[in-house]
Design goal:
Layout (H helix, E strand, L loop, with lengths): L6 E3 L6 H12 L8 E9 L5 E10 L2 E8 L4 E4 L3 E6 L2 E6 L1 H17 L12 E7 L5 E2 L9 E2 L9 H7 L15 H14 L9 E2 L2 E10 L2 E8 L6 E7 L7 H19 L9 E7 L2 E7 L5 E2 H8 L5 H20 L2 E2 L8 E3 L9 E3 L6 E2 L24 H4 L4 H5 L7 H16 L7 H11 L13 H10 L11 H15 L18 E2 L3 E9 L3 E8 L2 E8 L5 H11 L10 E7 L2 E6 L5 E2 H8 L4 H20 L12 E6 L4 E6 L34 H17 L4 E2 L13 E2 L10 H11 L11 H13 L11
Helix pairs in contact: 7-10, 7-13, 10-12, 12-13, 16-17, 16-19, 18-19
Amino acid sequence: MSKQKNWTTVTESQHNWERDALDFVRERFPAHEPYRAWANFEFIADDGSINEVDLLVFTPRGFFLVEIKSHPGQLEGDAHSWTWRHEGRAQVVDNPLFLANLKAKKLASLLRRQRAMGKHRVPFIDALVFCSAEGLQSKLDGNAAFHVCLRDTTNRPGIMAALKSRNCPGLSVQPRGTFNRPMAKAVTRALEQAGVRPSHRSRRVGDYELKDLLDEGPGYQDFLGRHVGLEDTFRRIRIYLVQGETDPQQQVIIRRAAEREFRLLQALEHRGVLRAMEFTNHELGPAIIFQHHPKAVRLDHYVIRHKDQLTDDQRLGLARQIAETIGFAHRKHIVHRALSPRSVLVLDPESSVPRAVITNWQLGYRRIIGTKTPLTREVTATIHVEQLSDDATRLFMAPETMVDADSLGEHQDIFSLGAICYNLFTGQSPAENQVALAEKLRTQRGLRVSAVLNGAPEALDELVQFSTDPDVSIRMETVQDFLEYLDKVEDELTTPSNQLVGDPTQAKPGDVLPGGHQVLRKIGTGSTAVALLVTKDDREYVMKVAVDPEHNSRVSDEGEVLSKFDDPLIVRSHGVMTIGDRVAILMDRAGKTTLGQRIRQEGRLSLDLLQRFGDDLLEAVVLLEREGLAHRDLKPDNIGVALAGPDSALHLVLFDFSLSRCSLENIRAGTPGYLDPFLPLRKPPRWDLQAERFAAAVTLYQMATGAMPTWHDGVTDPSMVECEATIEGERFFANLRVELTGFFRQALRRNPRERFDNAQQMLEAWRAIFSTVTATLTATDE
C-alpha cells in the first residue's frame, strides 16, 4: 500500500487484529486536506496519566478519537458494561466509551496548552468505539449503542460514515469547532509540541516493562508489567499520578493515597488480600508492585458474566470470603471504607469454587489503640473521599462516609458487605446513582433483596437489610454478626450433602471430612489457616486447616508446639493429620467466646474474674517460659473463656500458636497494640521474652480497665519520645488502685531491664495485689 501523506503511523501495531482495523479505515481514507490521521501513539495528560490512542482523525466533519475493539462473535450490554460472546465463552468489560471519552477530554486539555493553538480554539474531540471484527453481531441498542461503529457494509453505515458524515448513533449532527486546513495544520503542530510519542510499551517501573492498561481509577492507573530479565514473570503495577497534577494540594492527596495503601497492606498478610510486593518511585509518581493473577476478573464483571450460572453455594462462598477478609482487617484495626465489587478480584472465575481477593485500600485507615511502633503506626483516614473514589464505588459505600468524612468505624465496611451481598444475589447494583440510593435507603430502611428477587429467603433479606440500614445505631455492628447471619442464610438456602469432602477449606455445614468429622460451621479464616467447628462421636472439636499447601509447614509447626503441652491453660491438640494436600490440627474448643469478645461486650472484668483470669494468663506465660516456647501473639482475641476445673468455673485457654516459630529477627510479627513499641530500640532489634510479657501486661490492663494503655499524647510513636506509659488509675477498682498502678508501671516500663525479670515474678506480683484485698470479692454471675 502506498504511503499517505495525511496518515501518520506513530507506532506500528503488534496485533494483527488492530492492523486489520487500521487498514480498513486507511484504505477508505480520503487523501486530500483537511483529512488527517494519527495511529498508535501515547500522550501524558495534564494529570500525569499515560494514555494510548489507537486512532485520532481530523476531518471536515469533526475531530475523532477512535478506540478499536476487535472481538468476534456477539456483543451485548448496556451503557455501563459490555459482554462479548464467542464459541461458548463470554468476556465482560466496562463500556470502552467511558475510557475513550476520558482520553478525548485529556487530549483536548493538553492541546489547548500548546503554542500552536494560540490563535485557534481546539475543536471538540468526539470519542468513537470501532468494533472492527468482521461478521460481528451487535445487540447493543438505546444509549448502549451511542458512539459505537462497526465495519461499513452496503446496508449498514459504519466507522467511515461516522468519520465522513457523523452518521453514528449518539453523534450530534453538527460538529463543534472549526474544521478546515489551517485548523488541521495547527492541530498537527500542537500534537508535535505536546510530545506525542510511540506506545508506552518501552516504559519501565523498576525491572518491569509496562504493557497493557489493566484498570484505572481516581488518581491511579494499573498496568501489566513484565520483568525485563525474566520474561515469564508478570506483576500488576499501580502508578499514582502525582507529577501531572499542577495543584500542589492534589499532589499531596494522591501521594498520601499511595503511601496509605502500601502501609495498610504491609499489615494484611492474608490470602484474601492482593499482595503488595514493593513500593517504588516512577517519573509520574509513586508506584506499587502487586502480585499478578492473569485470569483474575473484577467481581462486578464476574457477576454479569456468570449471573445465570452462579449457584447459591458460589454466591455464599464469595460473600463469606470477602467478609472473613474484612474481619481479619478489622482485627488488625484496619477499615477499608471503599469496599465494592470494583475492589474485589475473582482469581479463578471458571472454577466451581472461585476465590476472591480485595484491592484498593487507599481510602482505608488503621487506628492503633494504645501502643505504636515505627512498624505498626497509625495510618490516618483521608477526608478527600470524593476525590479518591468513583461513582460506581460510591454506590456501595456507607452513606455517612459521603456526608461526614470524619465518620469512621467498622460500620462503614458492614454496609459495603451488605451491598455486595445484594449485588451477588440480585445481579444488580444497589441503585442507578447516589440520589436513587439515598431514596431507596430512606424508604426501605436498607437494601431489600425481596424487592428485586421473588421468593428471596427471609434470612437473606434480613441480612442485607440489617447490614445496610442507614441508621448506624441499628446496623449490624461487627463482621462476626454478619457471618453468623450468613450461616442462617446458608442453612435456609442449602441442604447438607453429608458427603465426604476432599478439600476441607471448602466444606459446608453437614459435610463429612475424611476421618469421619462432620462440619458444623466455619469459625473463621486467618492468614495461614481455616478454622472449622466439627463433631465426631457427639463431641465438638476445632479443626485448623492450612489455607493452601504453601502454608502446610506453618500449621504443622503449630501442631508440634501444641503437642508439647498437656495443661488446661493451653488448648489441647489431638494431633496433626493430612487431608488431601492440606495439613490440619484437630484440637479441643477453647470455649464458646473469647476474652476479647467478653471485654468488648462488658468492659472491664469484675474483681473476682480479674484475679482468676489474670492468674490463668500469667500461669500460662510461666508455663511457656518453662518449656522454652513463646506464643508471639498474646491478645484477648487469642484467648478463649471456657468452663474448667472441678468447680466448672470460667478459666482462660490460650490458642492460635501460629506465630510461635516465627524468627526472632521478625519484630513485626503479632498484632499492633500488643507488640512492644520499644523492640526497634533493642541492640540488636530482636524479639525477646520481655515482649511476650509486655503483650500479657497489655492484656491484663484491658481486663482491668476495658481500655488499652497509652503513651505520651496517644498519637506519637512512643519509641520516638522519652516517655512512660500513662496509667489511668481512676479506671481501676478503688480498693486496688495503688497496687494495680504500681504493677502496670513496672510491667510496661520503656526500659525492659526495669520490668519484671520473668513471668514467675510477674505472677507473684499479681497475686500479691489481691492478697491485700480485705473486702469480700463480688460474686459473679457466670
